[in-house]
Every structure is written in structure tokens, then in C-alpha cells.
Design goal:
The complex is a heterodimer of chains A (412) and B (229). By secondary structure, chain A is mainly β. Chain A has 5 helices and 27 strands. In chain A, the strands form 6 sheets. In chain A, strands 1-2-3-4-5 form a 5-stranded antiparallel β-sheet, with no helix packed on it. In chain A, strands 8-7-16-11-12 form a 5-stranded mixed β-sheet. In chain A, strands 9, 10, 13, 14 and 15 form a 5-stranded antiparallel β-sheet that branches. Chain B is built from 10 helices and 2 strands; from the N terminus they run H-E-E-H-H-H-H-H-H-H-H-H. In chain B, strands 1-2 form a two-stranded antiparallel ribbon. Chain B has 229 residues and is mainly α. Chain B has helices at residues 2-13, 40-52, 56-59, 67-79, 87-101, 142-150, 153-156, 168-175, 181-191, 210-221, and strands at residues 16-18, 23-25. Helix content of chain B is 44%, strand content 3%. The interface between A and B is large, with 61 and 54 residues. Strand 6 (99-100) of chain A pairs antiparallel with strand 2 of chain B, so a sheet runs across the interface.
């Protein structure tokens, strides 16, 4: 009985694959690599092509193996929720899963716990579910604007997104396993693996207090649908307010440690994704920090989304500027906008509140008096009182950019 | 014909297939190559860098990085990520990248000694000698083991299961019956390629001698290979 159903399914898959193939084959061949989007960042190979990956609309190609795709910035003007097919994709290791069976998938919870667990998706979905709207921003978002330049993915501003995540609190799963006294750190591993055994696996860790707090979520749902495969199907760690590096995809193993996370496979905590260990998380451009610490929470950030650099705007007539802002979870208090390069500032109107971890839309009607060049700027202040620096700070990894954004336009 | 067919296939491949039992994706094949160069670091980079990542990692870096910076990146790939490259390889790759993608010039004093094949010191590090290609299609002799290790073959292949590339069993099952299977397979090992087993490219192993490539081909064809598809 079961095997015959499986045969039917296999045939059905074949049919679906065939149909999808025809539909895509009918699209122009040039769509693979011909069109480009220019973000003003110089790269040796020139502009990056737009490319279509499974479950995704055309996104900017950062790297193809492992897949790394950036959201074209115009998407962020469409609303505070980033559509699943537009959400950026970032892997570190090329040996990524390409097939997941949701019936046999298991999440293992082990280590310093009273009862090690092996949970199916059904087990997880039977627990009390919760939702959060939260921003996932790549640590290296905007790295291409670092000055002096640094190696790494030369990202524009599109390696971020905001979605409604549905799942179970991590603390509930840990409670089910029973965290042992003396627990120190919790590690998270996904199904992606290195090509070579000598390459460290991609494993991230959270302190036990953070792991047991109400915020982190194990999510299977994104904007009301299953997670897109390339965003971590079938389960992803959601760490609201923290950079995307912690949001482990295809989550398959949680281990509770009674000591700090170290060793060969701790490389992405102990060596990579680290910031200068000081108040500004920065050093003088081009210099080497004395001490580093793991990157953690999102700094307050804001963008203008309704106009791109170089846009033409009319003189003497009101237009509405729009944008988004976010922080690590206190929420956005105010947005200040300047259309004269920072001499005068006006407070923008905040849009609907989707929660303290979400993109917060803002808008402001403005009128340009004189023709010629104008510089638009936007500066957010969070409820915690944090604001954005007027000049960019620098760190060797090109992480955590949060300078006040400036958008040059021409008034005609 | 072959190239046209694979360009078409990569569009067909960009599909998500979902049903109640499993969710499968097929990744598109994205054409990308390292920029050709007569410098010895080029062949080493083609062979080693693409084991773990596509050339666009290099292609989209900032312009103007110098020899010390590019050599530092090559060193990071070895020190942090375990790329199977020697100290000499690191210098040659760094020089090739700095000239081809960065600010260095072929005439720079630091580049000159690394710019021509005669100075390429990495050949000596290959081990394995003159492949013991004595046709005994049995288990891996010491030289075959050295070739497997020095070219990181086992990073992507295993005898009895798919890793990144196909298992040796599957390769043997597919090619064993071909006339001239050893030479067909050794040519494929040296040229690399994509499309036979999926979209993940196998890097070319052009520094292998014919005898070394034949030894590896004989070793692979001797795999049990019963369970091929």
C-alpha cells in the first residue's frame, strides 16, 4: 500500500518537474545573466547579474556555489514585509541539502539535558505555536561600502528582510529536554556541511540565558507559508534583534554544553563574525583590533526606499519620501529626515507598528525649493535612545554598517 | 551542441518540486570561470579553489587589492578552511589573483619570481610519482592514495555513497562497460566538467600526468559498482 502510494508520488513529482521545466524554459534565456543592477559598488567583475533560484524571483547573484543571493533594494519600498520569494539567501558551505523529507526530518536535542530528544516536524507543530515579525539582516549587509574596502561578499544594502515567523519558542523545546544545572552555551547546527572534512562546519552558539529567554524561535513558517527551501526549510532558528548569522538554516541539531563552545567546528563563533571588543565595535580604518568579540545585536538603522541615488525630483511641488527603520528590539522612536545635506531636519510620520523587531515604515512630504543637486539623509532613534552616526565606523570584517544613509538626487 | 543543451537544462533545472513526502530543489548551473592567465597560479587556482566555491567569490571582490592582500586570502583558505594547498601554492595563487584581479603588475619585483611556469614549485609537492599504472585494477596502491589525498578527491567522492560528486561505485557502474573506459575516465578527471552527474562542477585536474590520471581511473573503475543507477 505504502509503496504504491510512493510510486504515484514519484510519478507526480516527475510530472510537476516537467511542467515547471517547460514554464521556465519558455522564459527568455537572457534572464539568466543578462540584466544587471547597479548599486554604485565597484567590483572586479562589474555589475552582478540577476538570477532565478528555486522558490525565488530574480535576485542579485553574489555567489552561485554555495548560493548567496541579495534582494534588489527596490523591494523594500513595497512594504514592511519582505515577500518569501524576494528574501535574500546566504550559505557558507557548498555541501548544502537539496532534498528534505518532512516526514523523516528530525531535530535532535542533546548534550547537558535530562532527556535527549529527537523531534519530528509533527512533534514541534503539536506544541504551542507563536509568531514574531522580525528583521533578519546579514552581518555583512552593505560591506561593499566599507572604506577602505575589505574582502568578503561585496554586498549592497539588500541583504536584509523582514518576515512573520511562525514556530515554537526555543525555551519550550529546551524545557522539554530539561536543561541540566551548569549549562553554559547552546549550539545550533543545520544540514549544510563543508565539502572538505578539514573545513569547519557552520555551527553557531547562544549563551544559555539567551537561549532560555522568550525571544528565540524555531520556525517552520514564514509569512504564512513553509520556509522557502533556500531560507532553511524545514526549520530555522529565529533570533529576533540579532544578526542573521545566528539564524541557522535547515536546523537539525541543538546541543547544550556545560562549557564554552570551542574547537575546530566553533570557527564561525571563535574566529569569524567578530567585531572589535569596544563601545563602538570599531577601529581606525585599516588597523587591527586588540580584542574581538562575537557579533550580536542589530544597531539602529534606517533607509530611504522611495528614491534611489541619482533620481530626478521636481522643484516646487510636494512629493512623499518613504523608507524603513529598525533596531535590535526596543522599537523606533523617531525618524529625522534632511533634504539639504544635514543642515535642517524634519520628523517623519511613522507607519503601522508590526512589532518592536519589525521594519517600521516612515513617510514625509517634502518640497524642494531650488533646482540642482540635493542630498537626502535619514536618521533613526530607537526607544532605547540609540541613534545613527553621521560618519561611518570601520571594522576589519566590514560588518554592522549603520551610518546615516545619504541619497544624492537632482532637483529639476 | 553539448554547451547549448546544458544552457537549456540549467533553466529547466531551476524548479522547486514539492509534495507530501519530500521537498527537492535543483540548483541552476551558473556559468563562471576564473580569468585565464599564463601564470602558474592559474591552474592551481582552477584545480583547488573550485573544490569548495564558485569563481564568482573571486570575481566580485573589490578592485585594487594588492599581492599581500590576495596572498593573505589564499592563505586564509588553507589556514581557516583547510584548502589542500602548499605554501608554494599559496604564493603562486596569490600572485595570479593579485595580477589578474588586483593592483599587481607582472613586472613587480614580488611577482616576477612567481609569474612563470618554470618557477612553479608546486609540482614537486604532488607526491605519488609516476602513477603505478601497471594495470592491476586492484585496490589503491600507495601512489593512488597520495594522488587521492593531494587532489582532495575524497572531499567530494566516496567509494560507496554520493558526497558532493557521485560515488566511485556509481562511476564504475556507468563507465566500466565502455570500450576504452580507462582513457575516457582519465580524460574526464583531467578536464573536469559538469552535467554528467548533476550541476555541481568537478574542477579540472590538469596537472595530473596521463599516467597519474590513468591510475586514478583504474582505481575508480575497480570499485564494486554493483548499485549503479
Amino acid at each position: 500500500m505504502r509503496s504504491s502510494r510512493s510510486d504515484v508520488d514519484r510519478q507526480r513529482r516527475g510530472v510537476i518537474r516537467g511542467v515547471a521545466g517547460l514554464a521556465l524554459a519558455a522564459s527568455p534565456l537572457g534572464s539568466l545573466a543578462a540584466s544587471t543592477s547597479d548599486d554604485g559598488i565597484a567590483r572586479v567583475g562589474g555589475s552582478r547579474p540577476l538570477i532565478r533560484y528555486p522558490g525565488k524571483r530574480e535576485l542579485l547573484l553574489v555567489t552561485s556555489r554555495p548560493p548567496h543571493l541579495e534582494t534588489p533594494f527596490g523591494v523594500f519600498n513595497d512594504g514592511p514585509i519582505t515577500p518569501n520569494d524576494a528574501f535574500y539567501v546566504r550559505y557558507h558551505l557548498a555541501n548544502i541539502p537539496t532534498s528534505v523529507d518532512p516526514d523523516t526530518y528530525r531535530l535532535k536535542v542533546s548534550g547537558a539535558v535530562k532527556s535527549p530528544l529527537s523531534l519530528s516536524l509533527q512533534d514541534l507543530k503539536a506544541m504551542a505555536t507563536t509568531e514574531v515579525v522580525a528583521v533578519n539582516q546579514c552581518s555583512g549587509n552593505s560591506r561593499g561600502f566599507s572604506s577602505p574596502r575589505v574582502f568578503g561578499a561585496q554586498l549592497g544594502n539588500g541583504s536584509m528582510g523582514c518576515a512573520r515567523w511562525t514556530g515554537v519558542p526555543l525555551q519550550a523545546v529546551l524545557a522539554k529536554a530539561g536543561v541540566a544545572a551548569g549549562a553554559h552555551t547552546v549550539t545550533f547546527n543545520g544540514l549544510d556541511k563543508p565539502v572538505l572534512p578539514a573545513t569547519p562546519d557552520f555551527i553557531k552558539s547562544l549563551d544559555i540565558d539567551h537561549a532560555l529567554s522568550p525571544e528565540p524561535l524555531l520556525a517552520w513558517g514564514m509569512n504564512g507559508e513553509d520556509l522557502p527551501f533556500l531560507n532553511g526549510y524545514p526549520l530555522k532558528l529565529i533570533v529576533p534583534g540579532w544578526f542573521g548569522t545566528y539564524w541557522v538554516k535547515h536546523l537539525s541539531e541543538i546541543e547544550v554544553l556545560d562549557h564554552a563552545f570551542d574547537g575546530h567546528d566553533a570557527w564561525f563563533m571563535t574566529t569569524a563574525y567578530r567585531l572589535p571588543d569596544n563601545d563602538c565595535s570599531c577601529v581606525d580604518p585599516g588597523t587591527t583590533p586588540d580584542r574581538m568579540r562575537p557579533i550580536s545585536t542589530l544597531p539602529t538603522r534606517s533607509f530611504i526606499t522611495s528614491l534611489a541615488a541619482g533620481a530626478a525630483v521636481p522643484a516646487g511641488r510636494a512629493i512623499v519620501l518613504k523608507g524603513i527603520a529598525f533596531d535590535a528590539g526596543s522599537g523606533i522612536r523617531t525618524i529625522a529626515v534632511s533634504i539639504d545635506g544635514g543642515k535642517n531636519w524634519s520628523e517623519a510620520l511613522l507607519g503601522k507598528d508590526f512589532g518592536r523587531y519589525a521594519f517600521r515604515e516612515w513617510s514625509l512630504p517634502v518640497t524642494f525649493a531650488a533646482r540642482g543637486a540635493a542630498m537626502l539623509m535619514v536618521r533613526a532613534t530607537s526607544n532605547a535612545g540609540e541613534t545613527q552616526p553621521m560618519t561611518a565606523t570601520w571594522n576589519p570584517g566590514g560588518y554592522r554598517r549603520h551610518v546615516v544613509e545619504s541619497v544624492p538626487v537632482t532637483v529639476t | 551542441v553539448r554547451a547549448g543543451a546544458s544552457a537549456f537544462l540549467c533553466l529547466v533545472a531551476a524548479a522547486v518540486v514539492a509534495d507530501a513526502r519530500e521537498v527537492t530543489i535543483t540548483l541552476p548551473e551558473v556559468p563562471a570561470v576564473l580569468r585565464a592567465s599564463p601564470m602558474p597560479g592559474y591552474a592551481i587556482a582552477e584545480r583547488e579553489c573550485t573544490i569548495c566555491h564558485s569563481p564568482d567569490y573571486i570575481n566580485f571582490q573589490p578592485p585594487g587589492m594588492d599581492q599581500a592582500q590576495w596572498t593573505g586570502e589564499a592563505n586564509k583558505m588553507h589556514a581557516a578552511f583547510g584548502a589542500p594547498i602548499t605554501d608554494d601554492d599559496i604564493k603562486l595563487i596569490g600572485a595570479y589573483l593579485a595580477v589578474t584581479y588586483g593592483s599587481a603588475k607582472l613586472t613587480d619585483p614580488g611577482i616576477v619570481p612567481l609569474a612563470t611556469a618554470a618557477s612553479g614549485a608546486s609540482q614537486g609537492a604532488q607526491g605519488g610519482g609516476e602513477g603505478s599504472g601497471s594495470g592491476s585494477a586492484a585496490g589503491a596502491g600507495p601512489s593512488v592514495q597520495a594522488l587521492l589525498a593531494n587532489h582532495a578527491c575524497l572531499g567530494c567522492h566516496a567509494v560507496d555513497h554520493k558526497v558532493v560528486g557521485p560515488s566511485f561505485n556509481d562511476v564504475a557502474a556507468r563507465f566500466r562497460s565502455h570500450p576504452g573506459a580507462v582513457h575516457e575516465l582519465s580524460a574526464r578527471i583531467r578536464s573536469g566538467g559538469t552535467g554528467t552527474w548533476g550541476t555541481v562542477p568537478m574542477p579540472p585536474m590538469q596537472d595530473l600526468t596521463q599516467a597519474q590520471a590513468d591510475s586514478l581511473a583504474q582505481y575508480v573503475l575497480a570499485a564494486p559498482g554493483g548499485a549503479g543507477k
